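Whether sequence alone determines local backbone shape is best considered at the level of individual chains. The sequence in question and its structure tokens are set out directly beneath this paragraph.

***
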Amino acid sequence: MSQVDVSIFIPVYNEEESLEILQNKIETSMQATNISYEIVYVDDGSKDKSFEILEKIASNKKNVKVIKFRRNFGQTAAMSAGIDAASGRVLIPMDSDLQNDPADIPRLMGKINEGYDVVSGWRKNRKDTFVDRKLPSMIANKLISWLSGVNLHDYGCTLKAYRCEVLKDIRLYGELHRFIPICASWVGAKVTEIPVNHYERQFGSSKYGINRTFKVILDLILIKFLTDYLTKPIYVFGGISALSMILSVLIFAWSIALKVFGSIDFDHTPLPIIGAMFFTVSIQIFMMGILADLLMRTYYESQNKKIYAVEKQININN
């Protein structure tokens, strides 16, 4: 298929009641515009009749693509497959549970046309329970914005718009799909957000609970590390190693002081053992830093990757 204006890609997991309604809503929204589009559904190992319904939809719609996973791999994997299959100039993910509104797609496109590279949806009036959904999300969003420097109200909103060139080199793992705006900012993308509609779930129940917050925190730590130290991991490992070495020296000095001034033998205090432990840990962490630095160099050099991103070139022949 030749390139279209918009690729809408949708992860699906056990949403048989929603799919035909969602398809109709997307068609109604897009028919009111002059935007050419395609829809990429990714069935993430559904156990209901979701795939059969998607097959039926795709048999009558040439602009509908369907990908079926062998098992459930998770939302990040489904979004990655959608990105790989998309041919649009702009890529827009959205949920399949009818909580996102396809009528917001033209508004996202309007912001893209203003010159932004990433437009994030903000569920300003979110229709979810407060304690187990909204409150953890509010805390996570504040923390993510503070650590990343990319200030968004709602990282968890699936409905976003990306220029295709922003996503083409991004590889997603874990729960990293929610951090795509941060990954895009690494290469200088212009990021903004707009309020979007959000509706209560009509069918079934949410696939995510409060336990997901723990995974998000771990991925956030990874993102922070990659943001600041991807090309210089020895700095963070070396810093921890130096701290551990300083602690070991102080502990040894303390144990010697106790020996000299307090007449306490080494075998009567655990301090020498603790000092030796910190000394050993400092050496191990430093060696891990060297290994991480070597892996980083292998990552870039073996794949001929650059540690920078160029927006424009003038009179440069490649």
The chain has two domains: 6-229, 233-302.
